[in-house]
């Protein structure tokens, strides 16, 4: 009686799940701590400077830049404190020129 040799098939999925694999860029980004608020302030300021007439509500800011509620509030507070943003009667934030 002859036995068949055992075949081991390595698939792409099994290689990805190996213990020593390098995480993808998305996974690596998820492992990094969030950027400090000052980085978000700079980014938001640059976006408003780049797009004159930009007006965004808090929920729109949170969606656009992926901010959590607390970070969004700190960014808005910082930019209002220095006189860069102001809030309109409709609740949107615009550049205070």
What do these coordinates show?
By secondary structure, the chain is mainly alpha-helical. The chain has a domain at 33-95: Orthogonal Bundle (Arc Repressor Mutant, subunit A), CATH 1.10.10. It is 48% helix and 8% strand. The protein has 5 helices and 3 strands, in the order αααβααββ. It has helices at 12-16, 25-31, 37-50, 58-65, 69-81; strands at residues 55-56, 85-87, 93-95. The chain has a 3-stranded antiparallel beta sheet with strand order 1-3-2. Strand 2 and strand 3 form a beta hairpin. It is elongated and about 85 Å long. It starts with 11 loop residues before the first helix and ends with a strand. The mean pLDDT is 82.
Features:
3 strands, 3-stranded antiparallel beta sheet, single chain, 97 residues, Arc Repressor Mutant, subunit A
The CATH topology of the domain at 33-95 is given as: Arc Repressor Mutant, subunit A
Structural class: mainly alpha
Main sheet: strand order? 1-3-2
Compute the number of strand runs: 3
CATH class of the domain at 33-95: Mainly Alpha
Stretches with pLDDT under 50, minimum 5 residues: none
The fraction of residues assigned to DSSP E strands is 5-15%
Number of helices: 5
Instruction: Report on the biggest sheet.
Output: 3 strands, antiparallel
User: How would you name the CATH homologous superfamily of the domain at 33-95?
Assistant: Winged helix-like DNA-binding domain superfamily/Winged helix DNA-binding domain
- Overall 3D form: elongated
From the 3D coordinates, which CATH architecture of the domain at 33-95 would you assign?
Orthogonal Bundle
Radius of gyration of CA atoms, rounded to a whole number? 24 Å
Overall pLDDT metric = 82
Helix proportion range = 40-55%
What is the end-to-end distance? Answer: 89 Å
- What's the SSE pattern? HHHEHHEE
């Amino acid at each position: 009686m002859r036995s068949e040799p055992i075949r081991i098939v390595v698939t792409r999925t099994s290689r990805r799940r190996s213990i020593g694999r390098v995480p993808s860029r998305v996974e690596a980004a998820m492992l990094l701590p969030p950027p400090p608020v000052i980085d978000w302030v700079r980014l938001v300021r640059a976006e408003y400077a780049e797009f004159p007439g930009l007006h965004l509500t808090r929920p729109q800011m949170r969606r656009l830049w992926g901010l959590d509620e607390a970070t969004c509030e700190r960014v808005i507070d910082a930019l209002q404190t220095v006189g860069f943003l102001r809030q309109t009667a409709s609740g949107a934030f615009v550049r205070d020129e």
